[in-house]
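RETRY 2/3 - previous attempt timed out on the joint model. Re-submitting the same 605-residue input unchanged.
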Amino acid sequence: MALLGGILILLLVFLAVAAPLLSTHPEDVWDIHLAERLQAPSWTHFFGTDRMGADLYSRVLYGTRITFFIALIAVSVSLAIGVPIGLLAGYFHNWFSDLLMRVSDIFLAVPQIVLAILIAQTLGPSIPNIILALSITYWPWFTRLVFSETRALQKEVFIEATVAMGASPLRVIFLHILPNISSAIIVRTSIGMGYTILTAATLGFLGVGAPPPTPEWGRMVSESREYLPEAWWYVAAPGMAIFIVVMGFNLLGDGLRDILDPRLRRAPAGEKK
Amino acid sequence: MKLIAIIANRLAWLLPTVAGLIAITFLITHVVPSDPAALAAGDAATEEQIAALRVQLGYDRPLHEQFFSYVSDLARGDLGTSLYTGRDIASDLNHRLKATIELTFVAMLITVLIGIPLGVTSALRRNQPFDHVVRVLTVSGLAIASFWLAMMLQLLFAMSLDWVPLNGRVEGFPPRGGTGYFIIDTITAGRFDQLGSVMAHMVLPVATLAIPATATVVRFVRAGVLEAMQKNFVLYETAMGFPQSVITWKYILRNALISTVTQVGLIFGIMLAGAVVVETVFDWPGIGSYAYNAIVLSDYNAIMAFTIWAGVIFIIVNMLVDVLHAIIDPRA
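RETRY 2/3 succeeded.
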């Protein structure tokens, strides 16, 4: 399963990078050909055209770049913020770690999309603002995961031994704890990519995403609403793209979790034969 | 005794969490933008209009004074006035709340009724065809963008097949009745034809909300049951001769459900977030579509109010779930 997800993702990365080469109408990301609006799929326009006459196939292809760009940076920033905070909060048992966890609880207290809408709407529709909104609302997930994993690992004897040998907290955290919880972080990262892409697309659908004419998938689906049911390709193509990408990351994350988590491999005691 | 301590702890953290939320929202809307008045006035406003609006909305006062009046308004339950409609936001939200609750309640019911049995059965038939099919379905269900799912369902079942209505809550006039919940009102009024219409209108929105939520529930229940199956008590009970069905449905399920119950908060959050999209696509007159309209119209007061309002509800629900978890699970 992880293999399937991995292959999917690599394929999509390839598509994103090679978009200019693969797309049939690369200029359609920016140009308007009103004479050709809302055409059904054909050999010249594989996915049909949108309301501006732009080739949907090319726009979806270029949308891959936008999607990966946004998701990659947002998740990376969340990782960079969330993991250190989680490590510190988990390792130390003082008022400071309580405070850190309470702050992350506040962010977790609200559904991500609600806060992201507020941030994106206030700051204005642009790609950097989306990334900001997404990373501000996602870092607590990493923090919480790292916090519980760190606390669990602290009880292990080898950590106690390392501390007894005189290792500094910094050394214990980064050389001993972090490598052991990295598999959980990796799984969460993959699933987080999928989740972030969905949220970004939803923001785009609601109109607080990247501004037009950026070929953002969520926005394209939103544009297609008034042309249904005739222009079915207009809603099918970008939506399908979202589905495939998120599916890929979910499969990858699930597959990685199955591989990396030893607990699940044993046969259960009460299994029905 | 420990239970009381846990409940007290949760209650004690309620206020600081809400306070933190309010602080963050205030920061985002009053401090971060360079000119909140210009934001509120919109793109087409002139300098004088922005200046006038700044005084009217109080943005010219010092920050701590703004914050103080902001918080005291909230404490009184005053969520502000909509910049677009001019009406009181709190009353607008409360008015539309029932529509959303009805939708969300039915969706959660379906989710639980389908998700739990599916998850248990999938775990019991681990790695058999049934399990594989369910796992594919759940991974798919979580990968579909809800707005896309909503539109595709609309396209297929409402526009092409014409099996169910396209949008709205009911055909024609709303049912006469006290509660505001259409299912109840149509039954008490004896209007079963209307009940049919109400339920038909619910099919697609509920499906859109329920599919991702069910996928989540199935995954959690499945994982919970798998983990519970490895516990020693299962081996013990099997050796003692308990029937398999009793072990599964009485004891394993209880353990698995504990983790699922705590996920109710998460699922509720999914529903609330999903409601914004679903209500928009299906023209459902609830708080989700209210939020969408506020976004489209750049009604900052309304968006801010919605964030705090939804946030507080979510915080309270999660607190209740935490307490429930502490009650159910004596080991914690």
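Residues 169-206 of chain A form the longest helix (38 residues). Closing ticket.
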